[in-house]
Amino acid sequence: MRWLNLLKANVRMEYIEMKRYLPNTLALLLTFYIIFLAAFFGIMFVGDPASFDANVQYSIVSVVFWSLTMMTMNFIGFSVVTEAMRGTLEQLYMSPMGVWKIMLTRMIGQFVLQSVLMTLLLFAAMGTSGQWLNLNPMTTIPIILVTMVSMIGVSYMIAGLAIIVKQIQAFLQIFQFILMGLVFIPLSVAPMLVFAPFVKGVNMVREVMINNLTLTQMPWSDFGVLILNSSVYLVIGLFVFHLCEKIAMKKGLLGQY
Amino acid sequence: MEKVIEVKNISKTYVKRKTKESITAVNDISFDVYRGEVLGLLGPNGAGKTSTIKMICGLLAQDQGSIHINGMDVRKDRLKALRHISAVLEGNRNLYWRLTVRENMEYFAGNRGRSRREMTNQIEKLIIQFGLKGKENELVNGLSRGMQQKLAIAVALLANTEVILLDEPTLGLDVEISYELREILKTIVKEDRRTIIISSHDMPVVQELCDRVTIINQGTVIVDEKVNNLLELFETRAYSIKLGNPLTENQESQLLSTFPLCTYKRGPLQALVEVNLERSDDIYDLIEIFKAERTIVESIDRASIDFEQVFMKVVKGERNYAMA
């Protein structure tokens, strides 16, 4: 029950903040739509007409997932820095629930809210291009949920680093492009990326949406790899976060900005 | 009385990042806080108060020693210990300025695992108690500093913990708001009987609210005593002596050499001596000085002393308080 109350409080908080900063949220959504349009018109005017449909579908899924991963993962880093600047980070550390749980509920809240926005972006992109993808929620949602676990793992690493090194914004800006690479480069071109976080999941979602696969048509080994990848990143993420917390408490960095 | 907080031999040293120079902020401090007690943690700037408070809250790890809250080790069982403690560390900076008064209260309660429904009555009660009625749906950034400070304290009370730490609760507030806040805190102390640690430079607040003070200077405890005892102790030794004629030069130099910290104010016909008589024999030495030139002693009164003066005397080193 305490967990549920914590989750409710943080999802509500994220929702309120999103509402209060609505112009920012809409501007961001518009930015991602413009990026999609750039990709779409690029394919239309420069790309190979024979593979036009496939390329557009590929870019729709990639832009939407890039936006989702970026918004969810960078969010927590910015969130820690903002809390430290405001002076509320130490108050979060006064909660007997533990900051890792607060961060987790915030990430879940952010993921849910961003998913709603990204669904809007997805439909806008599909409507603009006339390319309607197979959404198949029964297949895509479980894959996305497991993929999200690895995103949470990486988010914990970012949050941990942000607690120690408050000037992390420059890294987060570079990180956007790393995420772009991870989402856009197909696994068939760079198979080693299967070890990177969430790449396998995005690849599987692409398979479902573009090639109309269902859950049962996908190899079980793919699910195995996805679950293993997500679990490993979650464990590493939590370990790094707790380690950074310890360092911050030892050096007195929690209240510093 | 039952101990709620036990601080034993804690030390904390920081290392400067650039120069690698070590700075000892807290050096082997020990003190206890008892159930229902209001303790003032005092000291000049840089004395080590904030580091001590942060170590009690588990926000800063001590290098040595231990801190127990209700028997729970803050270092080993931090989250369990935090169930018994809440704090206002940076006043109005502890709040979310883009949330309303009520949203802040609900959010912080939720962060402790409490539901909004469960907290409704208590939130309403605190809104009224802290004079925030009518402001509950306003954004915090639109409130005055005094209101923000009140809200920060209300949020800490909402946690329903036995121990509350208040770091500079009246810092930067005008006299009126400071007084109002002091009255609210007095009511809380009286009615709730919570264990409170107040760190403050506002001595009237300390004198009015605290049962006992622990004064820290340069990282070590220099006084741990009840407020009333300290006041009494310094009051009994401080005398104001009105003389019917001024002292001669010889008497004056003898007075200042025997009582270097005394003040002598010479008027055209009269004079005033303010002196601390720390030893029981001091009064005879003083009378001898007056007697030598048959100086007329018009009155001898106990000088009234407030806690600010006591604090200054202790910090400046007039600390033979243990003798009494």
From TrEMBL, chain A:
Q: Name one Pfam family in it.
A: ABC2_membrane
Q: Where in the cell is it found?
A: Membrane
Q: What is this protein called?
A: ABC transporter
* Any one cellular-component term (Gene Ontology): membrane
Annotated ABC-2 type transporter transmembrane domain residues: 7-204
Keyword set, alphabetical order: Membrane, Transmembrane, Transmembrane helix
Tell whether Metal-binding is among the UniProt keywords: no
Transmembrane parts of this sequence: 21-46, 58-82, 103-123, 143-165, 177-199, 223-244
- Which species does this protein come from? Salipaludibacillus keqinensis
TrEMBL record, chain B:
Every copy of the ABC transporter domain together lies at: 5-243
Superkingdom, taxonomy of origin: Bacteria
Any idea which UniProt keywords this protein has?
ATP-binding, Nucleotide-binding, Transport
Q: Which one of the record's GO molecular function terms can you name?
A: ATP hydrolysis activity
Q: Which family does it belong to?
A: Belongs to the ABC transporter superfamily.
Q: PANTHER family, per this entry?
A: ABC TRANSPORTER ATP-BINDING PROTEIN (PTHR42711), ABC TRANSPORTER ATP-BINDING PROTEIN NATA (PTHR42711:SF5)
This chain belongs to the protein called: ABC transporter ATP-binding protein
Organism the protein comes from: Salipaludibacillus keqinensis
